């Protein structure tokens, strides 16, 4: 950790850092205990839901520099000088849904939509790193996301549809993990 980060976390100094959220510059909260999920919601990215606030459900999943993380357990300051992509930022500027979002829509991969960020963002990370993942890789990517509505079969059907459509240049980014906070 650099000295300015130690000063801000340990000394309570005001943060002046920024993060890129879906292509917009957003200030990093001064409070070192504020979660990234709360900071994103305050910044208007309300597609990032807070379901459990302890990293169990996945409703708050975002991509940080292309890696999926459960933002309710990531301190917002960890996203300083990083690129954060929310479910709202997946669709290209022209408004069309990307291939993962389109598959979930076409295959009715959700019901209420509260948990949607989890499976969509984790699957996005997977296809960004491997445009033709195995069924086991799809199931592994979706593990750790809870849904109380669908019974998971609709989510798996949507995931299979998304991976069968092949890559598009707008879907590409580096791969990573959702269960470890960025360092």
TrEMBL record:
Biased composition (Polar residues): 1-11
SUPFAM superfamilies: 2Fe-2S ferredoxin-like, CO dehydrogenase ISP C-domain like
Name of the protein in question: (2Fe-2S)-binding protein
Region described as Disordered: 1-31, 163-183
Domain of life: Bacteria
Gene3D superfamilies: 3.10.20.30, [2Fe-2S]-binding domain
Organism this protein belongs to: Pseudonocardia ailaonensis
Entries under InterPro entries matching the protein: 2Fe-2S-bd, 2Fe-2S-bd_dom_sf, 2Fe-2S_ferredoxin-like_sf, 2Fe-2S_ferredoxin-type, 2Fe2S_fd_BS, Beta-grasp_dom_sf, Diverse_Oxidoreductases
PANTHER family associated with the record: OXIDOREDUCTASE WITH IRON-SULFUR SUBUNIT
Keyword set, alphabetical order: 2Fe-2S, Iron, Iron-sulfur, Metal-binding, Oxidoreductase
2Fe-2S ferredoxin-type domain mapped to chain residues: 15-90
């Amino acid at each position: 950790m650099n000295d300015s980060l130690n000063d801000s976390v340990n000394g309570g100094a005001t943060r002046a850092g920024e993060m890129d959220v879906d292509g917009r510059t957003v200030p990093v909260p001064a409070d070192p205990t504020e979660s990234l999920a709360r900071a994103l919601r305050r910044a208007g990215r309300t597609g990032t839901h807070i379901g459990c606030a302890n990293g169990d459900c996945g409703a708050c999943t975002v991509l940080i520099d292309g890696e999926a993380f459960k933002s309710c357990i990531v301190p917002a300051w960890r996203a300083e000088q990083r690129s954060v992509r929310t479910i709202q930022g997946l669709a290209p500027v022209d408004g069309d849904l990307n291939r993962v979002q389109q598959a979930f829509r076409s295959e009715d991969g959700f019901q209420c939509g509260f948990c949607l960020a989890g499976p969509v963002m984790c699957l996005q990370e997977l296809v960004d790193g491997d445009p033709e993942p195995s069924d086991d890789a799809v199931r592994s990517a979706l593990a750790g996301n809870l849904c109380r509505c669908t019974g998971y079969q609709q989510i798996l059907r949507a995931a299979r549809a998304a991976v069968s459509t092949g890559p598009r240049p707008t879907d590409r980014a580096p791969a990573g993990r959702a269960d470890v906070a960025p360092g």
